[in-house]
Amino acid sequence: MMHCTMDDLLALQAGEASGWARKHLETCAVCRAELDILYQRVAQLKALPGLRAPRDRWPAVRAVVLAGRDRRRRVWRVGTLAAAAALAGVLLLRPWGTDLEGQLVQAQQRSATLESTLQQVGGGGDGRVMSGREAALASALEDRIAAIDGQLAERQAEELEALNLWRQRADLMQQLVQVRVTRANYVGL
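Predicted structure:
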């Protein structure tokens, strides 16, 4: 015995079934049970709550982005103050003697100058959009500068090691300034 297909059952439910399907339904308990299950499924689907659009999440996203930007600015300010304090300490407390000391002071001054330049450029917090590549590069440079600052702060390095660290820091600052200035120039086109 042949039973009704799902298309036949859907047509029966919509009132558009063929004569054969209607006659078969009167005699077949299996197809009647299947049609009852179909009606129950339709009723369950109609009972589901309607979909609503999610509430606007932009204010929350914007608040998180601005908080992150403010946190980065505070870190840069603290880093700038730390570099300036270190430079002032070297200038005031260390005698000008060896060539190595002069090179150390010169590297510290270069780093402080580049940091000042970066502050003038805006440090990336000027609201302009940065490409993902530029943001990744700037973030990597900032992380490396922070690591060097940590090395300088955590121990009293011998002069040669300190000189190398300050030179690395100044080189990284130069690269970061180039990233920020290049972005600012391209955006201003």
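Summary: The chain has two domains: 6-47, 58-187.
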